[in-house]
């Protein structure tokens, strides 16, 4: 048995024994499920898909923003303090959720960022994600450069062209790409760094929340269809998170006695409802496509103490004016007890829970219509 597996088993068994008596039955069952799933992060086998392509924002970015002129760049300590190689451009203290999903899929190393991917890497997949990026082209631009979803798709075509050359012809490449997993997690910044940033963008004056959600989904639908026409068939679409519950929202807005900022969460919920409908439409209308929805919003709500977290309203590190960790400031030591690393992004410990639940649903509504572990078998 792998030593990491043994350590995790001992730690989590102790953790559950401490929780017994404090928890309702369903909470204990849920915690046990997540623990079992966490153990899988320490077990490697043959990859369940030949390649994994990742599109998204700072929740997935693993170095693409490092070479850009932007405030949304974190290639400095304390970011990466728990990552084997130190700061890499990941917006957390260690692994991202998508690093962990790659582990659960059986990949023995993280999927490389587009910025540094070489021909030896690309057949296993590429990570195109960019901090501050969104569905809309202008989203996040007040912070500087970022790679919008539209540009990420152009970068993917560059990689597809290289794969065609590598495999000899387009038919072989498309057949290969049909088997891969494509995860897309965009939309958060279209709210944080667009709709709810009225000093920099006028979308909140142009659209009601209902109208804006429909505008976003129409654009998003075209983006997914673009991927489909370049060989993608297995999609995991990650919904927007509970943005109104982030330390940034809690510090900036009047919560009116509620634990989170309801106005923001209501707008995000409208987007997610539209996204679920899009999943149904894509499954009906794109021949051979298998599309799932990952309920990031649900995973960001509820009582975090059930899973051992003690702090959810502030981040682990002292932050700057942009809500990111201030360079070289000392973060909290008890990082596994914090949900958030800075004012926006989860800790590695929090990422571990969401990665587990995305891969294998712990609650019925975690994913729809199935989870990633079943999607890759289709």
Word description of this protein:
- With 378 residues, the chain is mainly alpha-helical.
- 40% of the residues lie in helices and 6% in strands.
- It contains 13 helices and five strands.
- The chain has a five-stranded mixed β-sheet, covered by helices on one side.
- Helix 3 crosses helix 12 and helix 4 packs across helix 5.
- The longest helix is centred in the last third of the chain and has 24 residues.
- The radius of gyration is 20 Å and the shape is globular.
- The two termini are 30 Å apart.
- The N terminus is likely disordered.
Summarize the structure.
Helix content is 40%, strand content 6%. The protein has helices at 3-19, 25-40, 97-104, 149-167, 170-177, 188-195, 203-206, 209-229, 247-252, 262-285, 296-299, 348-359, 372-375, and strands at residues 52-56, 181-185, 234-238, 290-294, 367-368.
Question: Which percent band covers the strand fraction?
Answer: 5-15%
Count of helix runs: 13
Number of strands: 5
Order of helices and strands: HHEHHHEHHHEHHEHHEH
Shape: globular
Computed structural class: mainly alpha
Uncertain parts: 1-22
Gyration radius, in Å: 20 Å
Biggest sheet descriptor: 5 strands, mixed
User: What is the spatial order of strands in the main beta sheet?
Assistant: 1-2-3-4-5
> On the 0-100 scale, what is the average pLDDT?
91
Question: Helicity, in percent?
Answer: 25-40%
Gap between N and C termini? 30 Å
């Amino acid at each position: 048995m792998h030593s990491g597996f043994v350590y995790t088993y001992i730690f989590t068994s102790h953790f559950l024994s401490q929780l017994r008596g404090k928890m309702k039955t369903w909470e204990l069952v849920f915690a046990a499920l997540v623990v079992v799933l966490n153990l899988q992060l320490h077990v490697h086998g043959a990859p369940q898909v030949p390649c994994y392509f990742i599109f998204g924002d700072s929740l997935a970015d693993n170095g693409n923003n490092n070479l850009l002129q932007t405030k949304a760049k974190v290639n400095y300590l304390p970011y990466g303090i728990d990552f084997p190689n130190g700061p890499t451009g990941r917006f957390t203290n260690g692994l991202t959720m998508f690093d962990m999903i790659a582990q659960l899929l059986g990949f023995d190393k993280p999927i490389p960022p587009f910025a540094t991917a070489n021909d030896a890497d690309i057949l296993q997949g590429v990570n195109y994600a960019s901090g501050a990026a969104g569905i809309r082209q202008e989203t996040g631009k007040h912070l500087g450069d970022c790679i919008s979803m539209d540009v990420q798709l152009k970068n993917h075509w560059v990689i597809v062209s290289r794969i065609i050359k590598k495999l000899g012809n387009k038919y072989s490449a498309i057949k290969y790409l049909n088997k891969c997993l494509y995860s897309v997690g965009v939309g958060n910044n279209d709210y944080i760094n667009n709709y709810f940033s009225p000093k920099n963008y006028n979308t909140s004056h142009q659209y009601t929340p209902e109208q804006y959600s429909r505008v976003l989904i129409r654009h998003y639908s075209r983006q997914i269809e673009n991927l489909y026409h370049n060989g993608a068939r297995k999609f995991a679409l990650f919904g927007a998170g509970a943005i109104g519950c982030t330390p940034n929202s809690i510090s900036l807005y009047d919560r009116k006695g509620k634990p989170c900022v309801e106005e923001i969460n209501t707008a995000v919920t409208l987007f997610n409802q539209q996204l679920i409908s899009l999943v149904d439409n894509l499954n009906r209308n794109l021949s051979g496509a298998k599309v799932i929805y990952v309920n990031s919003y649900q995973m960001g709500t509820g009582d975090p103490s059930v899973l051992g977290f003690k702090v959810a309203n502030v981040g682990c590190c002292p932050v700057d004016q942009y809500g990111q960790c201030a360079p070289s400031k000392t973060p909290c030591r008890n990082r596994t007890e914090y949900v958030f690393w800075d004012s926006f992004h989860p800790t590695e410990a929090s990422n571990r829970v969401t990665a587990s639940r995305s891969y294998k649903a712990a609650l019925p509504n975690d994913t729809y219509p199935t989870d990633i572990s079943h999607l890759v078998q289709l």
